[in-house]
Amino acid sequence: MKNLLKSVVVASGVLLAANTASAQQKIGHINTAEIVQATPEFKAAEEQMKTLSDAKQKELQGMYTEYQKKQNDANEKLRNRSEANKTAVDAEVQEIANSMREMETRIQEVQRVAQEDIGKKQQELYAPIEQKVFTAINAVAKEKGYAYVLDISNGGIPYFGGGDDLTADIKSKLGIAAAPAAKK
């Protein structure tokens, strides 16, 4: 009986300590999108992505222009076709049509490769930035004793009623100057 009573007291003490400990866990929140976009690396990555995208777009635009030129040539030949040159013009138009089909295939391939290249470049540029930010998030959370840090940037939290905002702390850890406060 004495052992049972001791067990109940010890178990109650453990439960009380566990409840007290869990009640004291700190919860904070951050906006990772804001933090990532504030990094100098993000701005440089955005410039590189724009340059790459513009180059790919220019390449495709050149192909579209050539395609349209061939289409205009075919239309012009058909407009000037007569009974006397019908066979020769039809053969030329058929040759242009075959060339245009080949161009369509090349354009689709260039588009596919461009999308792959852009995706690879995004991964190459943004992954290190995200890793740097998440390392800073973990460091600040540990330094400040937070058990949980929620990201409010992606809309995955249906209700947000407060908690400590660690966004400025993370930016500080990354050496990002705080943005000036907006005037009301």
Automatic annotation (TrEMBL):
Q: Which residues form a coiled coil?
A: 67-113
Question: GO terms for molecular function, please?
Answer: unfolded protein binding
Question: Pfam families annotated for this entry?
Answer: OmpH
Annotated signal peptide: 1-23
Q: Which GO terms describe its biological process?
A: protein stabilization
Superkingdom is Bacteria
Keyword Signal set for record? yes
Sorted alphabetically, which keywords does the UniProt record give? Coiled coil, Signal
List the GO cellular component terms: cytosol
Q: Which SUPFAM superfamilies match?
A: OmpH-like
Q: Which SMART domains match?
A: OmpH
Record family assignment: Belongs to the Skp family.
Q: What is the designated name of this protein?
A: OmpH family outer membrane protein
Q: Which organism is it from?
A: Sphingobacterium humi
